[in-house]
Write a structure and sequence with these properties.
two-stranded antiparallel ribbon; about 15% strand; about 270 residues; 7-stranded mixed beta sheet; 9 strands
Length: about 270
C-alpha cells in the first residue's frame, strides 16, 4: 500500500469517527513511523509501505478512532519547541500553557517553582530558557515524578524534583524571589470538553463544582507562608479569572498581567 492510499483510507476512517483533524493526525503518524518530515511524506505519496508498517499505523488509527489523544498514541508531545514524553499518568500539555514561559522569560526570576509538574514540561522548559535560574518541581503523584525526571534527563536539564501536595513540600523554603508556576486542575466536575479528555487522569483535570478547589487550597497555603513568592502564575478558564483575582487578593496579591489563560500575580505591597 502506498502512502497516499493509506492516507486516503485512514483520513476517511477518522473523519467518519468525528475526529477534528484527520489529515494532520495521519500525517503526524506517518512522520513518526518513517522518521521523515511532512514535506518528504507529502512529496513521496507513492512510497510503498510494508505490511508491518501498515499494520502498525492501522493499530494507531484504531486507537485514535476511540478518541485516545494523539499524544498518548505517539508517547510524546511538542511543547515550546521541544518534544516531551507523555503517558496516561499525566495530562497532555496544552499550547496555551506556553504563556507561562513567555511571562517568566520577561521576568527572569532567579528561582522558579513548578507546582503540579506532571510531565515536567514547564519546569524543564523554564530551565532551558533561563539556564541561570534555579528550578524546583513538585507533584503528588509518583508516576508523574518518574516521567518528569525522565524528561529532565532526556533534555539534560537540572531540575530538583520533590514529592508533595501544593506548597506543603516547600513549607521550610524561603520563597522570597521565587516565581511559582501553578497549572493546577481547574476543570469543573462533569465538564467534558472533548471525548479525548476521558483518557486523561481525572486528578489532573477536575477540581470541584466550579473548578477552583485546588486553587482555593493553594491560595490558602500561600496566605500562611512567612516568606511569600515574588511572583505567582496561574492557569484557568477565562470565566475563572475574576474569582482567582479575589482569592489572590485575600492572600495579599494583585493581578499584573494576563496572557491567554495564564495570570501573573505579584504581592499587593509591591
Amino acid at each position: 500500500m502506498t502512502v497516499l492510499d493509506w492516507l486516503v483510507k485512514s483520513m476517511r476512517r477518522l473523519n467518519e469517527a468525528g475526529v477534528d483533524s484527520p489529515r494532520r493526525d495521519c500525517l503526524v503518524l506517518l512522520e513518526d513511523l518513517l522518521q521523515k518530515d511532512r514535506s518528504w511524506v507529502i512529496a513521496h505519496a507513492d512510497f510503498e509501505l510494508s505490511a508491518k508498517q501498515t499494520a502498525h499505523l492501522d493499530k494507531q488509527i484504531g486507537r485514535r478512532i476511540k478518541r485516545e489523544p494523539l499524544a498518548y498514541i505517539r508517547s510524546k508531545v511538542w511543547f515550546y519547541g521541544r518534544f516531551f514524553r507523555v503517558t496516561s499518568a499525566v495530562m497532555v500539555p496544552r499550547p496555551e500553557s506556553e504563556s507561562f514561559i513567555e511571562i517568566i522569560k520577561a521576568i527572569k526570576p532567579p528561582k522558579i517553582i513548578d507546582i503540579g509538574t506532571g510531565s515536567g514540561c514547564l519546569a524543564i522548559t523554564a530551565k532551558q530558557e533561563l539556564p541561570d535560574s534555579e528550578v524546583i518541581a513538585t507533584d503528588i503523584d509518583d508516576k508523574a515524578l518518574v516521567l518528569a525526571e525522565d524528561n529532565s534527563k532526556r533534555h539534560n536539564t537540572k531540575v530538583r524534583f520533590i514529592k508533595g501536595s501544593l506548597t506543603e513540600p516547600l513549607a521550610n523554603e524561603d520563597l522570597s524571589g521565587f516565581a511559582v508556576l501553578t497549572n493546577l486542575p481547574y476543570v469543573p466536575d462533569g465538564l467534558i470538553t472533548s471525548k479525548e479528555i476521558n483518557y486523561e487522569p481525572e486528578t489532573a483535570l477536575f477540581s470541584g463544582k466550579d473548578g477552583l478547589n485546588h486553587y482555593r487550597e493553594f491560595w490558602s497555603q500561600i496566605q500562611k507562608l512567612d516568606k511569600k513568592p515574588s511572583y505567582i502564575l496561574t492557569e484557568s478558564l477565562e470565566q475563572q479569572h475574576e474569582p482567582l483575582i479575589g482569592l489572590a487578593k485575600k492572600s495579599g496579591y494583585k493581578l499584573t498581567k494576563t496572557d491567554i489563560l495564564v495570570q501573573l500575580f505579584e504581592p499587593s505591597s509591591s
